[in-house]
UniProtKB/TrEMBL annotation:
Top enzyme category: lyase
Name of the protein in question: 3-dehydroshikimate dehydratase
InterPro entries xrefs: DSD, Glyas_Bleomycin-R_OHBP_Dase, Glyas_Fos-R_dOase_dom, IolE/XylAMocC-like, VOC_core, Xyl_isomerase-like_sf, Xyl_isomerase-like_TIM-brl
Any GO MF annotation of the entry: 3-dehydroshikimate dehydratase activity
Its biological purpose: Catalyzes the conversion of 3-dehydroshikimate to protocatechuate (3,4-dihydroxybenzoate), a common intermediate of quinate and shikimate degradation pathways.
This protein's pathway: Aromatic compound metabolism; 3,4-dihydroxybenzoate biosynthesis
EC number: 4.2.1.118
Residues that coordinate or bind a divalent metal cation: 134, 165, 191, 239
Binding residues annotated for Mg(2+), in chain numbering: 438, 514, 591
Family stated for the protein in its record: Belongs to the bacterial two-domain DSD family.
Keyword annotations from UniProtKB, A to Z: Dioxygenase, Lyase, Metal-binding, Oxidoreductase, Pyruvate
UniProt GO BP: 3,4-dihydroxybenzoate biosynthetic process
Domain VOC: 435-582
Amino acid sequence: MKTSIATVSISGIFAEKLAAIASAGFDGIEIFEQDFTASDFTPVEVGRMVRDHGLEITLFQPFRDFEGLPEPHRTRAFARAARKFDLMNQLGTDLVLVCSSAHPAAMGGIDRMAADFAELGDLAKSHGIRVGFEALAWGRHVNDHRDAWEVVRRADHPNVGLILDSFHTLGRKIDPDTIRRIPGDRIFFVQLADAPAIDMDLLYWSRHFRNMPGEGDLDVTSFMRAVMATGYSGPLSLEIFNDQFRAGLPRLVACDGHRSLIAVMDQVRRAEPTLSVDLPTFPAAAAVQRVEFIEFATSPEEAPALESLLAATGFARAGAHVSKPVTLWRQGGANVLVNTEGKGFTHSSFVAHGTTVSEVALMVADAQATHARALALLAQDHTQAALPGELKIPAFRGVGGSILRLLDATETLSRIWSVDFCSDAAPTEGAGLTGIDHIGQTMAYDEMLSWALFYTAIFDAKKAPMVDVADPDGLVRSQAVQSGGLRITLNGAEARRTLAGRFVEETFGASVQHIAFATADIFLTAAKLAEGGFPVLRIGANYYDDVEARFGLDPALVARMRASNVLYDEDAGGQFFQLYSEPRPDGFFFEIVQRQGNYLGYGAANAAFRIAAQKRSTRPSGMPRL
Ligand SMILES: O=C(O)c1ccc(O)c(O)c1
Ligand SMILES: [Mg+2]
């Protein structure tokens, strides 16, 4: 599978783009003409730079407003084409993309356009060049790949073929299966892009909101299945116009791009096994069974504060690691490790972020298989020496450099608690917490798409629609991802003074800002927590008046909620109760939730009230922040 990416897709000056694209593992680039024109290199130099990075120029684009023109525009268009073909010869590329005309004078007429392309084909042939015709979704006369194909078919020239772009096909809701009728050898090039489902002007949507396959809502997999069914074997090239990517980190965006191509082609071959997809084999995406433990990195000085918060939350010390200064805290099915080791990865996490969640361990069906898939999808492996007798547990890096560790029920890995830990207490009932419901990870807003793609590519996972949460000091975006028993909320902070933004700043980019534990009886749990001195977050009276009116709740239930600072939400499937701790100075907090029936959300409607209360709790007597 030959992979390529358009230079418009990432930020930086030309040399930076090349370095990022090469290091992400692409085979080639599409040169977007504007990027070349803006550079200070000659075409021969650019060609050499590209090849020196081990890349090839798969396409030069776009050549605009060519077909169906009256004179004198037509003659000018051919003269322009001759100049560009000379330029391409110097660059060292043989394929140009002609996008369908948006010229006000363009006349249309399928045979007229076909005749123009036949003549262009002769000119191209004399330069050793091939021409691909792409239907722009907003083209004046051609805005559908079926019409572009008919023009190409009638031009009937070996140097003229079709270029497909998933955005233009799927963005106009054209059935991608219509591609199956096109002969694969007449498709010269395929561009891929996804986009979020937002109803807006096609041109504006395309130029600002495209994203990597799998990051948006278009069915890029069905599009690629149809393309592969034609026998097409040319490059798969990302062409992503996106305001955020243009300002993003070149290497991160390029790596996301490569990951997205691997993920989408893996989906293609699994959905339609008869297709031949040139991709190394690796295991299928699997769902996570549950979060087995969460590990905090801390220091001997800071550990007591964390441990007393755990004790106040109903956890009891249940054991210690056989060789390292790590204690195990347990309640129901929730396991929390507190690691005060003064060396290695944990210590670096503590030094970088302060007391922080350095590791999340996931129970899966086959830890080695999930690990192999993660690495195939470009996750960074994490290895650490285990002492003789200790288990070697596969792991890879996740958000903020933290670790995702993989456990399974096989003979060796299932023995982690008996091999690596010695138990020093019987399980206690605590405050009735049964396990980990979800984990809240906070990041800069422009990393959200990357990390959502990370989870959905590696695991069998689904994204919920993104929601906006109003913090008093700015908007925060929240996107939930669920894979079986792993529920993650990704919170993207755009503004620095939001609770989420401050957490990112105060912790120098830690990831886990909150852990939500599950209970089967929120009021019983609330009572036990009150006895244990849990620092519950106080919720104001206005909230309870509103929630009673909004859902028509029984006033007796609302009175209990008010007395225990419990929040409420419901959806079509069921009910949801939540309560929170006050935030620690860096913004980290605990949440406790009870799901009833088949409630699927995370109480997003309550987030604004919770954040306001958390901010009040850290600003004494409601004093404004200076
Ligand atoms: O937005 C455009 O003009 C444009 C240009 C070239 C392309 O390949 C494309 O998909 C869009
Ligand atoms: Mg395109």
